[in-house]
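look at this stuff:

>
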Amino acid sequence: MKSAPSYRIIGSVFALGLMFVTYPLFAKDNAVYPAPTPASDAQNLGQKIQRTMNLLATSTPTKRNHVRVLFYGQSITEQEWSKQVADDLRKRFPNADLEIENRAIGGFASQWLIRPAEHDLYPFYPDLVIFHVYGANQQYEEIIRNIRSRTTAEVLMQKDHITAWPPAIQDANKDKGEWWTDFMNNQFLPQTAQKYGCGLDDVRGSWLEYLKANKAEPKQLLKDGVHLNDWGNYLMAQLVSRYLVYRPELPAPDAKNIKNYIIGKDIKWQGDTLTLDFDGNRVDVLPDAVAIARMPKATQSLKPVTIMLDGKKPTERPDAYAITRPQPGPWSPLFIKRIEHDKPVIAEEWTLKITSVNADSSAWKFDVSGSVTGQDGSGESDKLFVSNSGRVRIDPMDYFRNGAIPVGYEIKWKAYPIATDSYTPPTTLDPSRENATTLAQGIPNAHHILTLTATSDARRTLRALRVYTPPVK
């Protein structure tokens, strides 16, 4: 595999066949920017993201599909354009129950971003990831592979925008920077998108067309050598938003990776027990809003439904918990990119406290303690740290220092459950929403047996079980 050269590492509506809608001009601070012309690759718009777009487009006031969208990458993705895209989605699909987050980290190329992705990305388990990052191709592919093997998220990968006119001939010996950019955008990204079934937005090609059509120089859309100014943010938002189009005539292969098992039809109670054999790494329960609304008030104090997964309580599994991104975050005096563990964790809050620092903050010592575990060991910045309980493991490569570190400086994180041993049916809920509850997530993408045990009143409140099976094993 090719590797990213060092200069690359630090680099921090819609067309449907012949039919299209063009965005209006965008004005900010008395500046007006011309709208892009119809996409020359109209046939590619919406490819590989139709499960998500179907959920958005088919939402109604009485059936509000929950859709979770994550923007991820580095400083380009942090910029204003992502907010414009989010606002556009909310405007175009007002009936969807949208949950949109941007967890991009400026300056974190792929070989760094892959570390906090463990906290940011996979536990969030989005429906759609909008992704752009510079850096090494090996780690870029690993992030994509992880998304597609550890979640059912669809992925919209973005090519790089134009920062300078590309040369007519790419020469690896003469200009390695331009050659690498050409390799990534015209070989690696298309091949990776095809390999893992991802959408690929040709931002680069559309950006070049836009510059030529408007007789603009690349720098006119930038505030420095790479980051976008208002004009650039406008164009990026336009190019990404027009890809996010519902096209029911396109195949939606990812639709089969999320399946509802209707209780009473696909699976049935045997006495007080409901058993589901499934292949996947997540299972949710969906309540029956109609049945709950019809229940007499006297029966609305329901006993919890007990849950077993592969013969164990879900929270007894080592994969039943996730860990939040440590805080303070990136670009604070000291950030930890990833917290790992050797032994199963429990739900608790953790604190790393700096106890001593050398003169130039290049080395430090610390104590680690948990809100339940208590004092759990001391460590040094240049050595692998494994806490006494085994619930905290920190590799020295995951420290990210940015300036002087004061003695007493604290870094905090939480371990939290992504599984539950019991489910209490709600007595009141919004019938227009799905009101799904995750019973287990992050388990191996393999065969499992889920068993629910419930009283007769609680049984009537359950409508379906939903299984998520990531497309890549």
Notes: The mean pLDDT is 91. Residues 306 and 422 are 5 Å apart (CA to CA). The longest strand covers residues 437-453. The chain has three domains: 6-251, 255-319+419-468, 321-417.
